Protein backbone atom coordinates (compact mmCIF):
# COMPACT_ATOMS: atom_id res chain seq x y z
CA UNK A 1 0.00 0.00 0.00
CA UNK A 2 2.12 2.94 -1.24
CA UNK A 3 1.61 6.39 0.24
CA UNK A 4 2.85 9.52 -1.52
CA UNK A 5 3.16 12.64 0.59
CA UNK A 6 4.32 16.02 -0.64
CA UNK A 7 4.29 19.61 0.60
CA UNK A 8 4.46 22.83 -1.36
CA UNK A 9 4.51 26.40 -0.10
CA UNK A 10 2.33 28.73 -2.15
CA UNK A 11 2.51 32.53 -2.04
CA UNK A 12 -1.27 32.93 -2.07
CA UNK A 13 -4.10 33.06 0.49
CA UNK A 14 -5.61 29.87 1.85
CA UNK A 15 -8.96 30.24 0.04
CA UNK A 16 -7.36 30.75 -3.37
CA UNK A 17 -5.18 27.65 -2.92
CA UNK A 18 -8.15 25.57 -1.76
CA UNK A 19 -10.25 26.59 -4.76
CA UNK A 20 -7.40 26.04 -7.22
CA UNK A 21 -6.93 22.48 -5.90
CA UNK A 22 -10.60 21.59 -6.38
CA UNK A 23 -10.97 23.18 -9.81
CA UNK A 24 -11.95 20.65 -12.46
CA UNK A 25 -10.78 23.02 -15.20
CA UNK A 26 -7.33 23.50 -13.64
CA UNK A 27 -6.98 19.74 -13.14
CA UNK A 28 -7.47 19.26 -16.89
CA UNK A 29 -4.77 21.86 -17.59
CA UNK A 30 -2.35 20.19 -15.16
CA UNK A 31 -2.98 16.74 -16.67
CA UNK A 32 -3.09 17.77 -20.32
CA UNK A 33 -0.03 15.58 -21.03
CA UNK A 34 -2.32 12.55 -20.42
CA UNK A 35 -5.20 14.08 -22.43
CA UNK A 36 -7.23 13.96 -19.20
CA UNK A 37 -10.73 15.33 -19.36
CA UNK A 38 -13.82 15.26 -17.18
CA UNK A 39 -16.57 13.30 -18.93
CA UNK A 40 -19.26 12.73 -16.27
CA UNK A 41 -20.42 14.07 -12.92
CA UNK A 42 -18.97 17.51 -12.24
CA UNK A 43 -17.19 18.39 -15.48
CA UNK A 44 -16.20 22.03 -14.80
CA UNK A 45 -15.97 24.54 -12.00
CA UNK A 46 -15.29 23.75 -8.34
CA UNK A 47 -16.11 20.29 -7.04
CA UNK A 48 -18.04 20.13 -3.75
CA UNK A 49 -18.75 17.61 -0.99
CA UNK A 50 -20.59 14.54 -2.28
CA UNK A 51 -19.95 15.33 -5.94
CA UNK A 52 -18.12 12.97 -8.24
CA UNK A 53 -16.15 13.36 -11.42
CA UNK A 54 -15.28 10.75 -14.02
CA UNK A 55 -11.94 11.33 -15.71
CA UNK A 56 -10.82 9.87 -19.01
CA UNK A 57 -7.10 9.89 -19.75
CA UNK A 58 -4.33 7.98 -21.45
CA UNK A 59 -1.80 6.40 -19.07
CA UNK A 60 0.88 3.97 -20.29
CA UNK A 61 -0.65 4.15 -23.78
CA UNK A 62 -4.06 2.91 -22.58
CA UNK A 63 -7.25 4.99 -22.40
CA UNK A 64 -8.63 4.70 -18.88
CA UNK A 65 -11.54 6.00 -16.85
CA UNK A 66 -11.59 6.78 -13.15
CA UNK A 67 -14.43 8.08 -11.01
CA UNK A 68 -13.65 9.90 -7.75
CA UNK A 69 -16.03 11.36 -5.17
CA UNK A 70 -15.42 14.09 -2.59
CA UNK A 71 -15.99 12.30 0.74
CA UNK A 72 -14.71 14.93 3.20
CA UNK A 73 -14.78 18.70 2.88
CA UNK A 74 -13.69 21.33 5.40
CA UNK A 75 -13.44 24.60 3.50
CA UNK A 76 -10.79 26.07 3.22
CA UNK A 77 -8.55 23.66 5.12
CA UNK A 78 -9.03 20.17 3.74
CA UNK A 79 -10.84 17.88 1.35
CA UNK A 80 -10.58 14.21 0.44
CA UNK A 81 -11.39 12.45 -2.79
CA UNK A 82 -11.72 8.68 -3.04
CA UNK A 83 -11.94 6.38 -6.03
CA UNK A 84 -15.36 4.87 -6.77
CA UNK A 85 -14.30 3.09 -9.96
CA UNK A 86 -11.09 2.85 -11.90
CA UNK A 87 -7.79 1.09 -12.42
CA UNK A 88 -6.62 1.17 -8.80
CA UNK A 89 -7.89 -1.31 -6.25
CA UNK A 90 -8.59 1.79 -4.14
CA UNK A 91 -7.27 5.26 -3.42
CA UNK A 92 -7.70 7.93 -0.77
CA UNK A 93 -6.38 11.40 -1.64
CA UNK A 94 -6.21 14.12 1.01
CA UNK A 95 -5.56 17.78 0.19
CA UNK A 96 -4.67 19.87 3.26
CA UNK A 97 -4.09 23.65 3.45
CA UNK A 98 -2.49 25.51 6.35
CA UNK A 99 -1.91 29.26 6.54
CA UNK A 100 1.76 30.13 6.99
CA UNK A 101 3.68 33.37 6.90
CA UNK A 102 3.72 34.56 3.31
CA UNK A 103 0.99 32.24 2.06
CA UNK A 104 -0.24 28.67 2.36
CA UNK A 105 1.32 25.28 2.94
CA UNK A 106 -0.38 22.73 0.68
CA UNK A 107 0.02 19.10 1.71
CA UNK A 108 -0.99 16.25 -0.54
CA UNK A 109 -1.32 12.64 0.64
CA UNK A 110 -2.15 9.95 -1.90
CA UNK A 111 -2.70 6.51 -0.37
CA UNK A 112 -3.48 3.75 -2.85
CA UNK A 113 -3.52 0.03 -3.55
CA UNK A 114 -2.70 -1.27 -7.00
CA UNK A 115 -4.77 -4.05 -8.51
CA UNK A 116 -3.41 -7.50 -9.41
CA UNK A 117 -1.95 -8.48 -6.02
CA UNK A 118 1.76 -9.32 -6.16
CA UNK A 119 2.03 -8.13 -9.77
CA UNK A 120 0.60 -4.73 -8.76
CA UNK A 121 3.03 -4.47 -5.84
CA UNK A 122 5.91 -5.21 -8.22
CA UNK A 123 4.64 -2.52 -10.61
CA UNK A 124 4.57 -0.07 -7.68
CA UNK A 125 8.22 -0.73 -6.91
CA UNK A 126 9.35 -0.71 -10.54
CA UNK A 127 7.51 2.32 -11.92
CA UNK A 128 3.97 3.10 -10.73
CA UNK A 129 4.78 4.90 -7.47
CA UNK A 130 7.30 7.12 -9.30
CA UNK A 131 4.80 7.76 -12.11
CA UNK A 132 2.11 8.80 -9.60
CA UNK A 133 4.58 11.00 -7.68
CA UNK A 134 5.58 12.80 -10.89
CA UNK A 135 1.91 13.16 -11.92
CA UNK A 136 0.98 14.70 -8.55
CA UNK A 137 4.03 16.94 -8.49
CA UNK A 138 3.19 18.32 -11.94
CA UNK A 139 -0.40 18.93 -10.81
CA UNK A 140 0.69 20.60 -7.57
CA UNK A 141 3.14 22.89 -9.34
CA UNK A 142 0.33 23.92 -11.71
CA UNK A 143 -1.87 24.67 -8.66
CA UNK A 144 0.99 26.68 -7.14
CA UNK A 145 1.63 28.75 -10.28
CA UNK A 146 -2.05 29.38 -10.87
CA UNK A 147 -2.88 30.28 -7.25
CA UNK A 148 0.05 32.69 -7.12
CA UNK A 149 -1.10 34.32 -10.36
CA UNK A 150 -4.72 34.54 -9.08
CA UNK A 151 -3.47 36.14 -5.83
CA UNK A 152 -1.74 38.90 -7.83
CA UNK A 153 -4.85 39.51 -9.94
CA UNK A 154 -7.12 39.95 -6.88
Descriptive notes:
It is a single chain. Helix 2 crosses helix 3. The chain starts with a strand and ends with a helix. With 154 residues, it is an alpha+beta fold. It has one domain: 2-Layer Sandwich (Alpha-D-Glucose-1,6-Bisphosphate, Chain A, domain 4).
* Lateral arrangement of strands in the main beta sheet: 1-7-6-5-4-3-2
In total, the number of domains comes to: 1
In N-to-C order, the SSE pattern is: EHHEEEEEEH
What is the makeup of the main sheet? 7 strands, antiparallel
Head-to-tail CA distance between termini: 41 Å
CATH architecture: 2-Layer Sandwich
The number of strands is: 7
What share of the residues does DSSP label as strand, in percent? 35-45%
Poorly predicted ranges (pLDDT <50, ≥5 residues)?
A: none
Summary of the model, kept short:
The chain is α+β, with helices and mostly antiparallel strands and 154 residues long.
Question: What labels would you give this structure?
Answer:
154 residues, Alpha-D-Glucose-1,6-Bisphosphate, Chain A, domain 4
Topology:
Blueprint: E1 3-10, H1 14-21, H2 24-30, E2 37-41, E3 52-59, E4 62-74, E5 78-85, E6 90-100, E7 103-113, H3 117-153
Antiparallel strand pairs: 1-7, 2-3, 3-4, 4-5, 5-6, 6-7
Helix pairs in contact: 1-3, 2-3
Amino acid sequence: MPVIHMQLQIRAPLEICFDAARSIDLHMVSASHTRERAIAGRTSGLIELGESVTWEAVHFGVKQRLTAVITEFERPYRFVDEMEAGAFKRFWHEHRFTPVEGGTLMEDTFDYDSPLGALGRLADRLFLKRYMYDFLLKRNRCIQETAERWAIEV
